[in-house]
Design a protein that fits this description.
The structure holds two protein chains of two kinds. By secondary structure, chain A is mainly alpha-helical. Helices cover about 80% and strands about 0% of the residues of chain A. The longest helix of chain A has 29 residues. Chain B is an all-alpha fold. Chain B has one domain. Chain B contains seven helices and no strands. In chain B, helix 1 runs antiparallel to helix 3 and helix 5 crosses helix 6. The longest helix of chain B has 23 residues. Classes of the chains: A mainly alpha, B mainly alpha. At the A-B interface, helix 1, helix 2, helix 3, helix 4 and helix 5 of A face helix 1, helix 3, helix 4, helix 5 and helix 6 of B.
């Protein structure tokens, strides 16, 4: 059985930097991964034609996918680092809700997605909802 | 089904990671190897297994839907966890959390009622047979 250690005391700027690292790397990873999956095409169709191996081959032969996964791995280790120093009740709502907004902006700018009023409203409602739920 | 898997696996995986990481001593940037060692502890390992399930479902969803459609929908997982905590673990839920649940549900309802994919102009090289397969897949879905 392992002992439970209290979170260390980090200053507000250090905490903000840790959360910002999670948000930036996560947004970059998700936008790159989404771009990769769009360039590959519908995985359900590929799986119906070429089987699971064909679908995996299609994903693993896409360089954009590896760029996205690299950023997501960076986001994952940034999250582990932040969880080790800060409380979950701060890291989870802050990173989850802010990532929704940064992703909506990045999807509009880089993926040219049609982020209409409906999607902006949904992003903001979910963002505030996640904050209330996890704070 | 796919979006449901995404919604359930992500928060459960994060909870396992949190439990695993708080059981470890504070990790310093001077010793990054300890972060790698943390991956092989049971709670962090279980969290990673759940997050792999999440990632496979997430990639499938992203192949046929916009990022701005998939992300708010997956946030519904927080609502599922809150309901599990209330009715299975009998944990009390404050009014603030109920407000959060309502906001997320309304937000997901907003985005789910709209189109899942941005319309793009058709390319000349579009193959009619391919389009037929896509339509059949959409009908099955």
């Amino acid at each position: 059985m392992t002992a439970s250690f209290p979170a260390s005391n980090s200053g507000p700027w250090t905490a903000a930097a840790m959360i910002a690292a999670v948000i930036v790397s996560s947004t970059a990873g998700e936008v790159l991964t989404a771009a990769a999956m769009k360039s590959i095409g519908d995985l359900d169709v590929i799986r119906a034609r070429s089987g699971l191996a064909g679908a995996m081959r299609a994903v693993l032969s896409c360089p954009l996918f590896f760029a996205g996964v690299s950023f997501l791995a960076l986001a994952f280790f940034s999250l582990l680092f932040a969880l080790n120093h800060l409380n979950l009740s701060l890291v989870a709502p802050a990173s989850a809700s802010l990532t929704l907004v940064t992703n909506a902006i990045a999807a509009k700018l880089f993926l040219k997605e049609n982020v209409d009023r409906r999607r902006w409203t949904a992003a903001v409602l979910v963002c505030v909802g996640v904050y209330f739920l996890a704070h | 089904m796919i979006l449901g898997l995404v919604a359930v696996c992500a928060p459960l995986g994060d909870t396992c990671l949190s439990r695993g990481m708080t059981n470890l001593p504070p990790i310093s940037l001077a010793h990054p190897g300890t972060l790698i060692a943390a991956v092989f502890t049971p709670w962090v390992g279980a969290g990673i297994a759940l997050l792999i399930g999440f990632f496979a479902s997430y990639l499938t969803a992203l192949s046929w839907a916009d990022l701005t459609f998939v992300l708010p929908t997956t946030a519904f997982g927080n609502v599922i966890v809150a309901f599990l905590a209330r009715f299975w673990l009998h944990e009390p839920i404050s009014i603030q959390r109920w407000v959060g649940i309502i906001l997320i549900t309304v937000g997901v309802g907003f985005v789910a009622n709209g189109p899942s994919l941005t319309e793009r102009p058709a390319t000349p090289a579009s193959n009619i047979a391919e389009l037929g397969t896509v339509v059949e897949e959409e009908q099955v879905r």
